[in-house]
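[audit] Reproducing an earlier prediction to check determinism. Same input, same settings, fresh worker. If the tokens differ from the archived copy the diff job will pick it up downstream; this log only records the rerun itself.
[audit] input (635 residues):
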Amino acid sequence: MPSPDKGSPAISRRAALSSLALIALAVGVVFGASTRGDFVYDDTRQVMRNPLIQDPSLLGQALTSDVWAFKGDGSEAVSNYWRPTFTSWSVLCFRLFGLKPMGWKLGNLLLHLVACGALFAVLGRLDCSVGLRHACTLLFALHPVHVESVAWIAGAPDLLLASTLLGSLWAVSQWQESGRSGWLGLSLVLYALALGSKEVAFVCAPLFFLLLWSRSPGSDNGFLSGSRLGPRPLVLLSFPALAIGYFVARWRVLGGVSLPVPDSMLFSDLLPTLPSVLWWYLQQVLLPGHLSPSYSLRVVTTWQTPEVWLPLMAVLVAGSVLLLIARKDRFGWFALALFVLPLAPALNVGSFPAEQLVHDRYLYLPLAGFLLLVLKGAEHCSGAVRSDWFSPAASAAVLLIAASLGFSSHRAAANWMSELSLWEHAVAVDPASSFNWSQLGSARQQLGRHEEAGTAYSRALSLRETPRALYGRARSLVEGNDLEKGLVDLERLTQSSSAGAQEAYLLYQAYELLAIAQVQAARPELALAALVQARLRLPMYTAALSEKMAVVLYQVGRKPEALDVLVSAEGHARRELLPESKAVLMRLGMLYAELGRSSEARSKLEEYLAITPAGIAESIDGNRAAAQALLSRLP
């Protein structure tokens, strides 16, 4: 065997670029149609209603907050995700594309291509054949488990993680061979970006040790002593040190390791559920089918069931096979770690909602390691020798598998074109999911199909009563003019839900809808009482709730009180992140104009227009149009 310090057999730069160009063309054919889709699922909130990425003056706050901080007032974390690299990417995309989804989706496609190129480059530094290098990159590029990450704008963290982490591994191998400190610096910068892309990068620090070890000749002594291909121990420690620094910074931003996740499983159910989760991930990389944003795998509550022992035996067999392949050489250990380490955090299923234990996106980077192991095992089994290309038969088999995977990916990507198509497909895959039916109800509600939305929400509630489904059904009833039934659901929700950080925004929406319904039912005093209670429970939404109180007070002729409420909330309006919080300034401008205080009216209306973006919601656009019309009439 040639010395492993030479990596893969050399191929010309032209041949490598030609190969990557063909892979890029295949990716464009497979995933290109998805770029014509809409904002779906979390995209609507994370892009369209996220002032942290839209307002340049909030960049510092955006980079030092969790990614869902815009749902509150930024004073506390509302999610477990601090991802400054992803936030920076979102800010860049908003500057370039605004609220046009095609640009964002093209950005995801570009990141996927970068990840494929980075994988191709890393494989070029390893002891593997050129045929394996091309086959692994091609299959990785077209595999269906990537659909969620590529076609969904909010799936970008996995693309960023893979691109930066693989790039960092390539750069450190360049440093190992050349000894130039610039390559080491680049590797550390890219690893820092990987950590800021997704928390998974924290557990991937051992990959640097394994990569450098796999490329070092013979004796481990040379690896540790600082020979040409062996780094010094202190350099190896720089990557875990960077990971620890990230962990400390994340702790400070979030205020702890993690927040509790609503509707998660009991800790006692974690171990019985784990074999099913492991087996699901293995099946998904081998035979992906019926791809969906949500799957039917559920919590297993007892060991005395085939749902534990059958998957456990299958996992032990599959794991043994992968371990045997990995033991063949150092390259195998690196490949196994590339599969296991990025997937390990996803196995902590106790940190996920009970109906969302598994997701395709968690396999984005691990798939590279799995493919490396499988293809390396195929080489060993066939007795193939290192050569520039696979045999014609092997090449034909790879191309056939790639075509099949690409066809499946192309079909699955079509489901992500619109909110309705996505969740209609999801309930077809898992009709027993309350979450899926709630999401379908929301998609129908957005289209004004209130009765159908109510049916979907009722189905969700029949499966599992959740605050999301209860609020959704109430909204469909209120907007469908069935006020009394809607009020029953809203009263139930506002009286039973806690105001915890992750539930607060939903509770705010419930109070807002409750006030609207009470006004429509000609009970403004009850609407005011609900809003007063909401302000006490949800101080992070003081301005947004005050604006609604002022509207109700104005409608019942209590204009001085309305003005007092607005004035008292003016400071909150500037601090709060919800776009509707800024409406306090618009209402102040309108009241000042009515009172003949034209200069003050103009000041507030102009400030409102300056800090409120257009195009994020019909209600916001309506407010902006009213403010502009009033400004044009002011003396």
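[audit] rerun output stored. Observation attached for the diff report: The radius of gyration is 27 Å.
[audit] end
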